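Subject: Sanity check before I submit

Could someone independently write out the structure tokens for this chain? I want to compare against mine line by line before I put it in a report. The sequence has 321 residues.
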Amino acid sequence: MKKMISILKTIFRETTDACLQLFKVMIPILILVKILQELDLIKYLAWPLEPLMGILGLPAEMGLVWATTLINNIYTGMIVLASFTGEAPLTSAQATVLGVLMLVAHGLPVETAIADRSGARFLFQCCVRMAGAFVLAWLLHLIYSATGTLNTPAVMLFQSDPTAGTGSLMAWAIGQAKNLLSIFCIIFALISIMRVLRAIGAIDLMNRILRPVLNLIGIGPKASAITVIGLTMGLSYGGGLIINEARNGVLSKEDVFYSLTFMGLCHSLIEDTLLIALIGGHMSGAFWGRLIFAVLAMALIVQVVRRVPERARTAFLWAEK
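---
Independent answer below. Compare away.
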């Protein structure tokens, strides 16, 4: 019993620390979005993104959700999304397409900085993730539209009260406080789930399954173990290990580049996929589509990079040690 209480206290402390960092970003953005809504300026911000969202079959307002996610993180994008879904409910296909955009390209200032510190060029990592997110989202949109699948309303477990923005500022503040509390509960649950999965060996099993796949696309055995950690646990975990190994000279610059590029396209397969499920995203795109696309994209990238002159590689892809 004492051990269980100790574990719960540890999880609660980790959740609190994580939420404090998230809320420092989320709360100013929430206030900004509310001001824009009150001034009826959202439509003008979304207008430049409307053609891009239109290609993906998404409402123009979803461009603001993705832009927020690009700069910050998935949690922040979710809370901005909650401001719109009451007015324009998404289908399951749309939620999956939007979810894929958020999954592949989010938190770029932080996550690409991790890649840059390891020796992979910052600009290329940003570009490949944004391009990869758009291409995968577009392919899924084509598939779902052609087959007529997932055309029912998305079941969003995380959403705001549709009337919250129409009442007083106090009602709005209370509604957003509930959303922030929901985020806290989500993070607490995810941390708990990850601990259970590690304890029962599920993550180790996924590691063993994925390692042969990594070898097939050119990621060497020294980097494959770390890459799997990034795939299952997140880029911050895998990237941090890559930085350490790169500085110690254990990994070649090619392995660092391939590993970080692959992790950029597909990481945190468990936690982030669960988050997108909360907004109605489907596993077919959020998990399987993302994983298969990342493997195929990396197989292509490896073949192209091997044909690029060394000087161009050093200039645009990775830095010399």
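---
OP: Matches mine. For the report I'm noting this point. Residues 82 and 159 are 5 Å apart (CA to CA).
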